[in-house]
Design brief:
By secondary structure, the chain is mostly helical. Helices cover about 80% and strands about 0% of the residues. Helix 1 runs antiparallel to helix 2, helix 6 runs antiparallel to helix 7 and helix 7 runs antiparallel to helix 8.
C-alpha cells in the first residue's frame, strides 16, 4: 500500500459538499484518520495490497466515513459524486450518445444554443473515453450550429477538426459530407473559388463511395456556386468598367 495524499484526493469533492465550516472540518478530520482505518483493516486480516485497484479501497473508506456522517451530511449529493466516480466507459458513452441525440432533437426545434451546449458536453465525454468517431460527429454538429448562428469562421475551425478525424479513421463517406459543409461555409463568406474547390473534392469522394444522395446535393451546390461566381464576375466587371 503506497502512501496517498488524502487531502489532495478529497479537496475537490469536499468543496462540493453542502456542509457548514464545523461539519467540513469534521469531514477533514475523519479523512486524516483514513490511513489509520486502513491499517486497522489490515490488522484485522483484510489485505489492502491485494486489492487490484486502489480506488476501490478508497471508495470503501469513503463509504464507511459517509455512514458515520449520516446525521450531518447531505447523502444524496455525496452518492451522486460516488456514482460519477464509479461510471464505466460504457456508461459514459451512453451518456455522450444521449447528449448527442438531445442536441439533434434541439436542432430540429431551432433550439440552437441549447443544441450547442449538448454537443459540447457530448464532445467532452467522447474525448475522455477516446471515442474518435463520436468526437468527429460532435465536432461536425457543433460546426453546423455555429454556422447557423452566423459564426462562419469558428464553424470552419470545427469542420476542419472533424475532417481530420474522419480521414484518420478512414470514414470516406463522412469525409465527403464535411468537405461539402466546408464548401457551404466558404460560400456563405462569399469565397466562391474556395467553395467550388471543396464542392468538387466532396463530389469526387461521394462518387467514389456511391453516396448518390450526397452526390445529388453536391451537384446542386456546384451548380449554384458556378452561377453565383458568374454573376459575381459580371457584376465586378461592369463595376470596373464604370470607373
Amino acid at each position: 500500500w503506497d502512501t496517498i495524499n488524502y487531502t489532495t484526493d478529497f479537496s475537490v469533492p469536499c468543496s462540493l459538499f453542502p456542509l457548514s465550516t464545523s461539519e467540513f472540518n469534521f469531514v477533514r478530520l475523519l479523512i486524516c484518520f483514513t490511513p489509520s482505518l486502513i491499517n486497522s483493516l489490515s490488522l484485522s486480516g483484510i489485505s489492502i495490497k491485494s486489492m487490484p485497484y486502489r480506488k476501490i479501497s478508497l471508495i470503501a473508506s469513503i463509504s464507511l466515513i459517509l455512514t458515520v456522517l449520516q446525521p450531518v451530511v447531505n447523502l444524496p449529493i455525496l452518492f451522486q459524486i460516488s456514482q460519477v466516480l464509479a461510471q464505466t466507459p460504457a456508461d459514459r458513452k451512453a451518456e455522450a450518445e444521449r447528449l448527442y441525440q438531445q442536441g439533434d432533437q434541439q436542432i430540429q426545434t431551432s433550439q440552437y444554443k441549447e443544441a450547442l451546449q449538448s454537443f459540447q458536453q457530448a464532445l467532452t465525454i467522447y474525448r475522455k473515453i477516446k471515442d474518435r468517431k463520436g468526437q468527429a460527429f460532435s465536432l461536425n454538429y457543433i460546426a453546423i450550429v455555429k454556422r447557423t448562428l452566423g459564426d462562419n469562421i469558428e464553424s470552419l475551425e470545427f469542420y476542419k477538426q472533424a475532417l481530420y478525424i474522419f480521414r484518420e479513421i478512414g470514414d470516406r463517406l463522412n469525409e465527403g459530407t464535411v468537405l461539402n459543409n466546408i464548401g457551404k461555409v466558404h460560400e456563405g463568406l462569399g469565397q466562391y473559388p474556395q467553395a467550388l474547390e471543396f464542392y468538387q473534392r466532396a463530389l469526387t469522394i461521394r462518387q467514389e463511395v456511391g453516396d448518390q444522395t450526397g452526390e445529388a446535393f453536391t451537384l446542386t451546390d456546384l451548380g449554384l456556386i458556378k452561377y453565383l461566381s458568374k454573376i459575381n464576375f459580371i457584376f465586378f466587371s461592369k463595376f470596373s468598367n464604370d470607373f
